[in-house]
Amino acid sequence: MRVRRAAIDAQREELQHWRDAGRLPDEELCVLQRELDHEELLLPKRPGWRTSI
After folding, report:
1. In this structure, are residues 18 and 25 in contact, taking their beta carbons and an 8 Å threshold?
2. Long-range CB contacts (within 8 A, 24+) of 48-53
3. Cα–Cα distance between 50 and 28 in angstroms, integer?
4. Cβ–Cβ contacts within 10 Å for residue 11, how many?
5. Contact criterion met (CB below 8 Å) for 48 and 13
6. What are phi and psi of 11, to 5 degrees?
7. 3-class SS at 34?
């Protein structure tokens, strides 16, 4: 689980670098970030994390 979270974080950073370098339009960045958000939501919750209601 930690490895997958680290991979998702690394993917987010790489997407930001691509966008900053002009290789990825903002619209596509948003789509890919939503996909990563969805993947992250499917992972078990981190111990001690609170969910907002």
Report:
1. no
2. none
3. 30
4. 15
5. no
6. -65, -40
7. helix
- Distance, in Å, from the CA atom of 12 to the CA atom of 27, rounded to the nearest integer, reads 15
Alpha helices, H only, 1-53 = 2-20, 26-42
Task: Judge contact between 3 and 35, C-beta under 8 A.
Answer: no
Beta-carbon contacts of 32 under 8 Å, excluding residues fewer than 6 positions away, are 15, 24
**CB of 24 within 8 A of CB of 18?**
yes
| Residue 6 C-alpha from the chain's centroid | 10
Report the predicted TM-score, pTM, of the whole model to 2 decimal places.
0.77
Q: In residues, how long is the chain? A: 53
Tens of pLDDT, residues 19-42: 999 999 999 999 999 999 999 999
